[in-house]
Amino acid sequence: MSDIFWITVAAAIATYITRAGGYLVLSRFQRIPRRVDRALNAVPAAVLTTLIAPSVLKGDWREALVLVLVALATLRLPGTAVFMGGWALIVALRSLGP
Amino acid sequence: MSDAKRSEIIDGLKSSLPVVLSSMPFGMLFGALAVKNGFTPFEAVFMSGTLYAGASQMVGLELFGTKTAPWLIVLSIFAVNFRHVLYSAVVGRLFRPWGSVRMALAFFLLVDPQFAETERRREHDIPVTWRWYLCMALPIYVMWIIDTWIGAAFGAMIGDPRTFGLDFVLPVYFLVMLMGFRKRRSFIPVVLVSGVVAVVAEQTVGAPWHVSIGALAGIAVAMAMPINPEDDNPSGETPR
Description:
The complex is a heterodimer.
Chain A: H1 3-24, H2 34-58, H3 61-73, H4 79-96
Helix pairs in contact in A: 3-4
Chain B: H1 3-36, H2 41-50, H3 54-64, H4 70-80, H5 84-95, H6 100-108, H7 112-123, H8 130-155, H9 169-179, H10 187-204, H11 209-224
Helix pairs in contact in B: 1-2, 1-3, 1-8, 2-8, 3-4, 5-7, 10-11
């Protein structure tokens, strides 16, 4: 079996641990230490930012423009609509020219 | 079948419908992108069926493309899925009367909308039964797998990922997800620091290390923020 297969198995086990773990572990504690809670809360935003940041620099003005517009649009509009709009916009901008 | 049982089933199916429809494009997108990133259709469907967590599956794809060390991919997926810990801490005790086998299965199916709906029922004192839970969860799960398979079949037919902007959909997707966290404490400092550190690390240390270095820097900032004695909500969300 390929690497992808085994990494998927490990990631699936890790994911299951997060889904059952809250009940099995956290519900035994009265409360989570504040700093730990802070760290856990920051994880998704921190990880996602590192995945986006390099692509801001890699593309040209079109990619940068779309990302700025998408970020602004999420302040008002539902996520799925913004995602679809951003996707349509990059296709449209690229079809305009070099 | 009694009326109560029937209404639990209908309620569950009704709750599943909007989730099935709204997750459809993402399931297909995942399948198509997976194939473009070197997965076989089987591997894409296998990932959807075992991991069953859309956002983290997309993160996994992104990292597979960059030859990241396996343990780092698993850790990143774990990090993105960590929010589920809070879900199971909140609703897990509702599953207890169902017995341990059903409980174990219920945790596997505890995706974001399933948690939201379960919690909504609990808040409104509507009983959370195994029958209702499964009738909501199962269509979402089965359709997620079918969507992935359709997307993978479709993706195999696309030659250049730049067609249809497929090379750029993940950054857009991640950005939309990121903005969903904007109400959390220290959002702006975390984003700024992770972003700048990730870019610097990518230029100096190189990919894929910018992911873990950038993320750790952002997390460190969140931990270092002064603790205000009167803000006392454990989830870190701004009260609505």
